[in-house]
Amino acid sequence: MSLITLTTDFGTKDHFVGAIKGAIYSELNDAKVVDVSHQITPFNITETAYILKNAYRNFPKGSIHIIDVDSELSVENKHIAIALDGHYFICADNGVISMIASEIKPDKMVEITIHNTLTSSSAFVKVACHIARGSTLEVIGKPINEFKQLNEVYPYINKEQNQIVGTIIYIDNYGNVICNITQKLFNDVGKGRPFEVSARHYNFKKVFKKYNEIINFEVPQEKRQYDGEKLALFNASDYLEIAIYKSNLKSVGGASTLLGLDYRDSITVRFL
């Protein structure tokens, strides 16, 4: 039996998460359902795309991913099902799939046509259970060749190839801010040149690979004062991140609060 994952902006206060799980179990009582996140910022497609891209690859091939964010059906927000990289994705055609599909070409895509009187969540459940039983996408929709692009996932590179302007696409639980500049893009454009990373009034001339690389371990532990230091690094997902070492939004704060950085703010890399 395939795994079915759930990524939504439902939160956990209301009945929606329980209802969608109940609908799955009513269709397939032996289903395996895994929560990716229900704390997506409401209607935030870019945030959803980032979380989805970094979560799905950890699941086994054949997993089915329901993405129920900004999914109300309309003539401009159709529902699609996609086979890609050995996984299935069920979502609205609102650009949420573009961060994955920009790197890996989908094997098959259909526009879902089984709605009738079903709600968005119910339709997604029907499709997921249909796939889990081993049926094909063609039965639940008509083939399509295109999907909406999410422009925010692509940074800007100037003609001189000496500047990348990225956008903050996600703020994590620690207040670290992640932008859409990948390490691969950084290396491809930079070609080993010196650089400066700018975020508001703060500049960084080094990008770390781990948070604790900021520490000089030759200094005795009782004399170290690194908590609260700001740093730039490529995170575990290979995206450029601005962080505060050992941050805590509930006490000392994080990069988002201490440095005044927010969703959609710019982060610029200049190669010297």
Specify the structural class.
alpha+beta
DSSP strand content: 25-35%
Could you spell the SSE succession in H and E letters? EHEHEEEHEHEEEEHEEEEEHE
- Report the count of strand segments: 16
Largest sheet: 9 strands, mixed
Gyration radius, rounded: 21 Å
Mean pLDDT: 93
Shape: globular
Distance linking N and C termini: 54 Å
How many helices in DSSP terms? 6
Notes on the protein architecture:
- The structure is a single chain.
- The protein has 6 helices and 16 strands.
- The longest helix has 13 residues, at 120-132.
- Helix 1 (16-27) runs parallel beside helix 4 (120-132).
- It is globular, with a radius of gyration of 21 Å.
- Strands 8, 9, 10, 11, 12, 13, 14, 15 and 16 form a 9-stranded mixed β-sheet that branches.
- By secondary structure, the protein is of the alpha+beta class.
Reconstruct the topology from this structure:
Blueprint: E1 3-8, H1 16-27, E2 32-37, H2 45-56, E3 64-68, E4 79-84, E5 87-92, H3 98-101, E6 108-112, H4 120-132, E7 141-143, E8 156-157, E9 163-171, E10 177-182, H5 183-190, E11 195-199, E12 202-204, E13 207-208, E14 230-234, E15 239-244, H6 255-258, E16 266-271
Parallel strand pairs: 1-2, 1-3, 3-5, 13-14
Antiparallel strand pairs: 4-5, 4-6, 6-7, 8-9, 9-10, 9-16, 10-15, 11-12, 11-16, 14-15
